């Protein structure tokens, strides 16, 4: 999300339950708690849909889901899944037509709860 401070970007992306966990330092809510929230944000809705559809297709094919969390600030990219003390700007690279961030953390996840844990960690 892009915009001025205080315009509701975080609320729109996360919703109140994940925002509370991220900013107050609470444990991330489970997917049932987030799913019951009519004000849940864009990210929880996408995560729910992804894992619901994967569950419907179980056995039809093999899948692996990973999560990365990037902040772009003043034209620099930061890996929010790295401890803040170790967080340095990432280099944007291009190789064979593919653009990527060198050294970006990719964590394998198997549930919505795991995604929420990473998301809340990224605020720390």
Give the % helix. Answer: 25-40%
What integer value in Å does the Rg equal?
A: 16 Å
Describe the main β-sheet briefly.
2 strands, antiparallel
| Distance between the amino and carboxyl termini | 19 Å
What proportion of the residues form beta strands (DSSP E)? 15-25%
Order of helices and strands: HHHHEEEEEEH
* Helical/strand content category: alpha+beta
Assembly form of the protein: single chain
Count of β-strands:
6
Which spans of ≥5 residues are poorly predicted at pLDDT below 50? none
What is the general shape? Answer: globular
Number of helices: 5
Give the averaged pLDDT, no decimals: 89
Strand order of the largest sheet: 1-6
Task: Set out the fold topology.
Blueprint: H1 9-14, H2 16-24, H3 31-36, H4 42-56, E1 65-67, E2 70-73, E3 76-79, E4 91-95, E5 98-102, E6 107-109, H5 112-122
Antiparallel strand pairs: 1-6, 2-3, 4-5
Helix pairs in contact: 2-5
Task: Kindly summarize this structure in a few lines.
The chain is an alpha+beta fold and 124 residues long. It contains five helices and six strands; from the N terminus they run ααααββββββα.
Polypeptide structure, described:
- The two termini are 19 Å apart.
- It is built from 5 helices and 6 strands, in the order ααααββββββα.
- Helix 2 crosses helix 5 (112-122).
- The chain has helices at 9-14, 16-24, 31-36, 42-56, 112-122, and strands at residues 65-67, 70-73, 76-79, 91-95, 98-102, 107-109.
- It is an alpha+beta fold.
Notable traits:
6 strands, 19% strand, alpha+beta, two-stranded antiparallel sheet, 124 residues
């Amino acid at each position: 999300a892009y915009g001025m401070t205080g315009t509701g970007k975080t609320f729109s992306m996360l919703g109140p339950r994940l925002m509370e966990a991220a900013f107050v330092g609470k444990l991330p809510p489970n997917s049932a708690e987030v799913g019951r929230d009519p004000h849940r944000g864009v990210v929880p809705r996408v995560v729910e849909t992804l894992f619901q559809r994967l569950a419907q297709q179980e056995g039809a094919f093999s899948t692996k889901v990973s999560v990365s969390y990037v902040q772009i600030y003043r034209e620099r990219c930061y890996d929010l899944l790295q401890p803040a003390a170790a967080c340095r700007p990432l280099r944007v690279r291009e190789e064979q037509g593919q653009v990527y961030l060198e050294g970006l953390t990719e964590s394998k996840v198997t549930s919505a709860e795991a995604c929420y844990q990473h998301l809340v960690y990224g605020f720390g």
